[in-house]
Amino acid sequence: MKYRRFTPNELRTLEPEFVRFLALNGIPADEWIRIKTTDDQKVEELIEQFSDAIFERTLQELEYLEFHAPKDIKTFHCQKEKIVLVGLILDGESEFDFTTHNSLEPALQKMHKGEIQLKVYTAEKGYRNGDREAELFRMIENGASISKDGNLYKALALQIDNN
Fold first, then answer.
1. With 70 as the cut, is the pLDDT of residue 111 above it?
2. SS3 54
3. Name one Pfam family in it (predicted).
């Protein structure tokens, strides 16, 4: 496998896609039922193929990732040839924790009151061995989450552009 096998729970949430995958591979519902009861190896092969296909498609389409740590937020724009990081870090001592807030608003309010200091930073790099999807997969497996709209990345990038 290139990525990993879906967990039973992940498979349940992707059941409609899995049914379409089976149909595209010429396996109707009655045949799938027979395979499940008679050929464990074939079941594993099909689930692994499906898992890899879904991961591959998702990773190819992926554009933004985020990683939230208590004192740091990292947002990533996953371009074709490189990945661009725009981060926000708490500067100095503070009890503020980015993992307990769903938006930047509380941090910005505290910053405007002078209660915390924030720094925006950026970096970029090419993908290891040129394998974009494998690197993005590792990031997700290590705690990064997919951002569908990239709004946090765009907001932080705008802060850099304005400075």
1. yes
2. helix
3. DUF6495
147/68 same-domain check: yes
Residue 137: domain span = 64-162
- Residue 59 clears pLDDT 70, i.e. is over it: yes
Q: Are the C-beta atoms of 139 and 59 separated by less than 8 Å? A: no
Residues 42 and 69 in one domain: no
Side chain identity at residue 24, one-letter code: L
pLDDT per residue as tens digits for the range 75-88 = 999 999 999 999 99
Q: Residue 96, Cα to own-chain centre: how many angstroms?
A: 24
- Dist CA 86 CA 120 (whole Å): 7
* Per-residue tokens: 98: 């980015």
Residue type, 147: S
- The residue-averaged pLDDT of 64-84 equals 95
Both tokens assigned to 101? 């807030």
Which of 145, 162, 163, 136 minimizes the C-alpha distance to 98? 145
